[in-house]
Give the backbone structure.
Amino acid sequence: MEPLRAALVDYLARTRGVLGSVDRAVICCGASHALALVVDALVAGGRRRIAMEDPCLPRHREILAGRGVEIVPVPVDAEGLRVDALVAADPDALLVTPTHQYPMGVALSPPRRAALAAWARERDRVVVEDDYDAEFRHEHQPFGALQPLAPDHVVYLGTLSKTLAPGLRLAWLVLPERLVGPVIAAKRAGGAENSVLDQLAFAELIRSMRYDRHLRRQRAAFRRRRDRFVAAIEAASPASAVTRISTGLHFVVGVPDEAAVLAAAGALGLKLHGLGPCWHGAPRSQGSSSGSAGPPRPPSTAPSARWWPHWYRYKPANWTGTAPGSAANLVATGKVCPITFDRGRTCRLGVCE
Ligand SMILES: Cc1ncc(COP(=O)(O)O)c(C=O)c1O
């Protein structure tokens, strides 16, 4: 809907430096839907070799694989995507998480951002920038988006799944001009549409600045939660390094035996994600990732099983998962839905009023 697209274009320019216009914005049913539409449009335009980070989000790999594209894995190191390896492989397009690499958590370094944008411009390639949790930069000012470095070659993708609720299924694309028609055609062909009510409500949330207020509050809450989580892990298991936690809502914890840790956590009712499925080939490091999203203001002072009884007390009516204790508030329990969390006050679109 135009009111939401207009509000988003202003918001993204203000907060992420994204260069766009209402005509180049498309609203989608989550990042996964947005990615599927972009891949359909790329394939329709003859771009079939698409690079992904290695490791990556398994769901996104499934989406690409399901569309019959040739997936080109590109390694990630401490500075993010290895742009030299990308340039050597020279695929038609790339899906990348530059602000907060999923799952490893590194940010793409400024020289690599410049090199990536130059590759896209000079070779006329398409880069899909998945900016899924940039709102939660904890340690210093967020990098701006990659998109303004090459707006005619970078597809910008954002989502509400981290900031409000994954259940809303609301995400957005800001597209290079030439991809607008093909993406809209793919969306029409697929038949999925967003709720008009949700779009109008979100547009109002942005326009009224209450979305900014909500993010400020959540940023502080998640930072506190992260600090408690790291302190608890370090106290309990000094050998398990918690890495790359400057942004976002999930943590990577290095462990000697991933399968054993996942099994032990499962026995406690905690659902952790191993890194194993994130690799394109054989796993190269062991770790588990856990998240800190979930109900705002858990009534606990430490990320421990002490949360659980409280969680059950306050759990959203539509909650179907397991207890989201410390480590349990997982990437998987990204399904936790702050929108219905309510302690007697009115909650609208996840913002307590
Ligand atoms: C890397 C990455 N991108 C995007 C998303 C959001 O996906 P969606 O909007 O489909 O819920 C997630 C959620 O976990 C993610 O991990």
User: Anything to note?
Assistant: The longest strand covers residues 70-77. The CA atoms of residues 48 and 69 lie 5 Å apart.
